[in-house]
Every structure is written in C-alpha cells, then in structure tokens.
Automatic annotation (TrEMBL):
<protein>
    <submittedName>
        <fullName>Uncharacterized protein</fullName>
    </submittedName>
</protein>
Amino acid sequence: MDAHYVTCTRIGVYSHALTRGKIYEVFKIEDYKYRIAGDHGKRLWIHKGHFVDGIVEIPILRSWKFDDEIDELDFIDISMIFSDGSRRWSMVTTPEKTRNYFNNSCVESGFHIEHLIIMKTLEKLDVEETLRNLDKNDELFKASKELDES
C-alpha cells in the first residue's frame, strides 16, 4: 500500500500534536478521522476536518504591521505577509475603541465588517498572539482581505 499523506490546515484543540502547514503520514483511515503520529510522537485519531488530502502548501503568517497610528483611530488597519508571498489586510480594534466610536453622535447605529478583529488590547504582543491563534486555526484568511497594492 502506498503512503497516504495529509496536510494540516487547522490545529483546533490539538496544539500539542499538530502544526498548521505540516504534512503527516496517515497510518489508518476511518469514516471521518485519520490516525497519524502527532508532533508529540504519539499516534492519535484526529477528525479529517483538520486536514487537506495530500501534500499542499498552506500559507502561514510570516509578519504583520500596523498601517495606522493606534492612538489616533478607533479602527486600525494592519497588513500581513504570508509564507507564499501573499499579502492581506485587516482592521483591528478593542471593545473600548468600539465604544468610543459609537459614542460619537455622527456615526451610524451599527455596521458589519467581515475583516474586523476585536481584541483585548492593541499591545504588539497581544495582536501577535491573536493573529497567530487565528492563523493556526485557519481563520485569518476569513478575517482579512487580499491586499491590492495597485
């Protein structure tokens, strides 16, 4: 039997055993799960939803930066670069900055922004941790838009 490989797209609750973008050999397949050797050296069953079939390059967040001054605006643009060279952007804010925005009488009563990430603080380490967690769980692409630099 030929070896069967899968590539991890999200780690979920398996941070001890999976790395997003890593390729794993499948030892056994059942209905909805694969038996693989995790990063911790033990074999375990993991739902197929954490993987894509085959050896696939998964774009991983490499770097990010604030594009605005965080003290000047309520919603701050950030830009990100991924391992495949793609660039994306998102908006970040905090609950406090959102309250400040809505306390302005000149704004609408509500809005929807797909690429808005709300976090506790805009401290660089907190933003880094939030972006890495979203990336590990394949949510960062959904929470961002392609950066068109034209």
